[in-house]
Amino acid sequence: MNPNSVITKAMNFAAQKHADQRRKGAKQEPYFNHVAEVAWLLAEHTGGQDAELIAAGLLHDTIEDTATTHAELVREFGQNIADIVMEVSDDKSLPKQERKRLQVEHAPHKSDKARLVKIADKTANLRAILESPPDGWGEERKREYFIWAKAVVDGCRGLNQGLEDGFDTLYKRGMSAFTPKI
Ligand code: ZN
């Protein structure tokens, strides 16, 4: 498929699948804003040459957070893109804490593209928490999220310095804001 076609098809697919979902932040942004940011981060830090990666960024939450199946993604976007999305999807049948633990444990064993999507996803989440935190999230909860996100990202390092630097900048900003000054 032509690169522009695959990216815009993924954009349209994600927009429709997430149409009724909002982010947890106080601003209640459309969920699509999150996947658009992830796709842009991936394009920005990889020279925009990998349409499969950018499309996977747009689609990265469709299996986990909508009724989309892996088979549907294979049919619409081919095996490679579908497999990246599958790799970054939690098994929703497991309890939340177990899913979070497995993300850290599995991160170093993921494919290169899945690891890049993971870093971009966590970067977008940190920015969202800094700019529009979910209702009821105190400093401690934010701090815990940041520490967990860094543990996942630490398992994904070594592929793209710009993407890692973007994550690390937000991580440091958050931790200096949340950690009580001594
Ligand atoms: Zn996401």
Question: Would you kindly provide a written description of the structure presented here, covering whatever features stand out?
Answer:
The chain is globular, with a radius of gyration of 16 Å. The protein has 182 residues and is mainly α. The chain has ten helices and no strands. It has a single domain (3-178), classed as Hypothetical protein af1432 (Orthogonal Bundle). α2 crosses α8 (112-131), α7 runs parallel beside α9 and α9 (139-154) runs antiparallel to α10 (161-178). The mean pLDDT is 96. Residues 34, 38, 60-61, 121 line the site of zinc ion (ZN).
Number of domains as seen in the coordinates: 1
H/I helix tally: 10
End-to-end gap: 56 Å
Strand tally is 0
Proportion of residues in extended strands: under 5%
Mean pLDDT: 96
| Main sheet characteristics | none
CATH superfamily: Hypothetical protein af1432
Assign the structural class, choosing from mainly alpha, mainly beta, alpha/beta, alpha+beta, or little secondary structure. mainly alpha
Rg, Cα atoms, Å: 16 Å
Small molecules held by this entry: zinc ion
Helical coverage, percent range: 55-70%
**Could you say what the CATH architecture is?**
Orthogonal Bundle
Order of helices and strands: HHHHHHHHHH
CATH class: Mainly Alpha
Low-pLDDT ranges? none
Task: Give a short synopsis of this structure.
This protein has 182 residues and is an all-alpha fold. The chain has helices spanning 3-17, 31-46, 51-59, 62-65, 70-77, 79-87, 96-106, 112-131, 139-154, 161-178.
